[in-house]
């Protein structure tokens, strides 16, 4: 279950997470701060593999990581860099759930654009249809004419759903047209 990295046009890199190829810079943007520091040290793809394998659990880092599970996960150079940076002992790496959600949401968008129904998406991703519509609405709220902008981690459902804001505005406008000013 490795996370391959491949070069694409223009020299940028992509990281494949759960079968979805994503731009390395976008994946890094969705990482928790601690995982970003690890990514700066060993690379984004290795940091994703590390969080998938050891995230949320204690991981022993020896002074010589040769032949260890850590080396199997991230490779010998990255394991040596982690050993040098953290020293010998146990450390806990973040799980990187926001990266997994980002990859899942991008896969949902790709499947939806391919014509998959919301019911089929709900079954495939084991989500409610309501949650799928929220993900799709958040994506629509952040689209630009030049392309797709990823959903920011800080976006709330109310901000991401234009209809929710529109309903409140149109109700107030309807009351104003009817002569109701809110006073009894």
TrEMBL record:
Region ranges (Disordered): 161-184
SUPFAM superfamilies in the cross-refs: Homeodomain-like (SSF46689)
Biased segments, Low complexity type: 162-184
Domain of life: Bacteria
Domain Mor transcription activator residue range list: 71-143
Gene3D superfamilies (UniProt xref): Homeodomain-like
Name used for this protein in its record: Mor transcription activator domain-containing protein
């Amino acid at each position: 279950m490795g996370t391959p990295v491949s070069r694409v046009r223009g020299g940028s890199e992509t990281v494949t997470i759960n079968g979805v190829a994503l731009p390395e810079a976008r994946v890094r943007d969705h990482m928790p701060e601690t995982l970003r520091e690890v990514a700066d040290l060993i690379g984004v793809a290795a940091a994703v593999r590390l969080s998938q394998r050891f995230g949320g659990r204690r991981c022993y880092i020896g002074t010589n990581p040769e032949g260890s599970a850590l080396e199997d996960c991230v490779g010998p150079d990255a394991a040596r860099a982690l050993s040098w940076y953290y020293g010998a002992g146990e450390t806990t790496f973040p799980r990187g759930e926001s990266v997994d959600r980002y990859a899942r949401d991008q896969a949902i968008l790709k499947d939806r654009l391919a014509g998959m129904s919301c019911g089929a998406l709900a079954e495939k991703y084991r989500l409610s249809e309501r949650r799928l519509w929220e993900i799709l609405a958040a994506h629509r709220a952040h689209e630009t004419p030049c392309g797709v902008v990823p959903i920011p981690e800080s976006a709330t459902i109310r901000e991401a759903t234009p209809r929710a804001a529109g309903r409140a505005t149109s109700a107030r406008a309807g009351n104003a047209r009817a002569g109701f000013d809110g006073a009894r």
